[in-house]
Amino acid sequence: MPIEATAFSGLVFANYLALFPLALGAKRENPSTGVPPHCVPEAFLGALCRAFGTVLKATPIRDTGAGTAALPGLAPPVPFVFPGIVVAQAQFLTSQGWVGPMAALGASAMIGAPLLYASSLGVLQMQPNLLMGTGVGIVSPLANPGLEATVTAALTAALLAEFQATGKFGVGDVPGAPVNATLAAQLPNYAAALAKGISSITATVAYVGNVSTVVPIAGTSNTGIIL
Known about the structure:
Elements: H1 5-19, E1 27-30, E2 35-39, H2 40-58, E3 61-68, H3 85-96, H4 101-121, E4 124-126, E5 135-139, H5 147-166, H6 181-198, E6 203-207, E7 216-226
Helix pairs in contact: 1-2, 1-4, 2-5, 3-4, 3-6, 4-6, 5-6
């Protein structure tokens, strides 16, 4: 099932409410500047999830394969996981300077939940493999050495754009203004932690070639995207 923005952010927000049920009452508005009534955590997580989903689905993911040279190798969409969720949450807590049990719940809700729901909703679709036919591709951090840095940069930019687009987090509380300084200073921490989790991605891809052959091949690399 592909990642769809509304369903994705809905799951993340529902998880947040399960952890912080009083958050539903955290509403504000500013008629003097034109900020409409809104639930702050819902608006925050909505922007976070939109940026996360956009970047995740635009990021190439690579595998390393071994098999036979029966080109091309075709593979159905496969599930994937982010084993580094706990590490990503710990990094976030350190960068934010948050401590205590409520801080851990916050990291789980804002870093762990997007990563977890993305892996449960999304699938990884590899391109036709033009280097290997029948065989197995392994998606791992080793196959994606620059992924963390790439995603951090892309997410930082996307988060700033999404939060500005909400019109609810701007300088002077003015809709359309750049994100206020406090939040702008913290969004790179969200980006870095989510990128840490994404860069831990693992999956196993089964390719099937068009023609049977006994010629072995190994060390190939192929690219795919998350849907």
